[in-house]
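Tokens in:
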């Protein structure tokens, strides 16, 4: 039987709430187990070596988007990343850039997503007649439902924000997640906003015309969402206003 490997984790540590604390990398060793993910490894490190280690998780199944971090330079979900992917057994973990740091590997993506939602009005704007709860629901075509479902798969993990060089250079850029969500409402026949309304929100350098097509979002999105296709769709819509 082959002997289990020893993994080496180099982890960013910094607690902004702790007066005098300074950012540093701390090294930990751990015996690899079959099927181990980076998320499982972090739990074991916290349970057996350092209870102060901060990182986020909820679902452990790639659904909640909480465990996103930079793993060996690549932003992705810790619960969907096998330690076996790293043949030399060295794994470096950093928090996602572009978000407020809570501590160590934990960042405040929730605050970012809420501010984005308020800035872009990311909720359905239906006809006032649709607010009548006694009205019979109107069916949606399966084709439209499929298109909306595709974009609803976003788990708001923040990976595309961290992977976008434009966003890192220009903080006011709405990023792929913002444009994907606008595309979702633009496609929804129940939403009364027109292309002209959306143009006033994202028809500028902070929106569709600021994207430099560097593809960081599409290359890293753990849900394989079609960012480039949707941004091109919105650009065509905005250009026709
Ligand atoms: S679009 Fe993809 S990478 Fe961006 S927040 Fe949604 S799931 Fe995460
Ligand atoms: S813990 Fe929910 S996506 Fe990883």
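Residues out:
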């Amino acid at each position: 039987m082959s002997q289990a490997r020893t993994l080496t984790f180099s982890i960013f540590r910094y607690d902004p709430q702790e007066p005098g604390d300074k950012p540093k990398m701390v090294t930990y060793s751990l015996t690899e187990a079959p099927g181990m993910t980076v998320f499982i490894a972090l739990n074991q490190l916290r349970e057996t070596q350092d209870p102060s280690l901060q990182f986020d998780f909820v679902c452990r199944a790639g659904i909640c988007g909480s465990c996103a971090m930079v793993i060996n330079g690549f932003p992705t979900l810790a619960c969907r990343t096998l330690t076996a992917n790293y043949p030399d057994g060295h794994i470096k973990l950093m928090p996602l850039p572009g978000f407020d740091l809570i501590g160590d590997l934990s960042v405040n993506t929730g605050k970012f997503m809420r501010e984005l939602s308020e800035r872009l009005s990311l909720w359905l704007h239906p006809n006032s007649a649709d607010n009548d709860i006694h009205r019979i629901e109107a069916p949606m075509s399966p084709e439209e439902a499929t298109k909306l479902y595709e974009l609803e798969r976003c788990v708001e993990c923040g990976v595309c924000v961290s992977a976008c060089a434009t966003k890192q250079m220009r903080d006011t850029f709405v990023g792929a997640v913002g444009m994907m969500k606008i595309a979702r409402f633009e496609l929804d026949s129940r939403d009364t906003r027109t292309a002209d309304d959306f143009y006033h929100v994202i028809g500028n350098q902070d929106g569709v015309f600021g994207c430099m097509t560097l593809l960081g979002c599409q290359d890293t999105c753990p849900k394989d969402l079609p960012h480039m296709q949707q941004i091109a769709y919105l650009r065509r819509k905005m250009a026709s206003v």
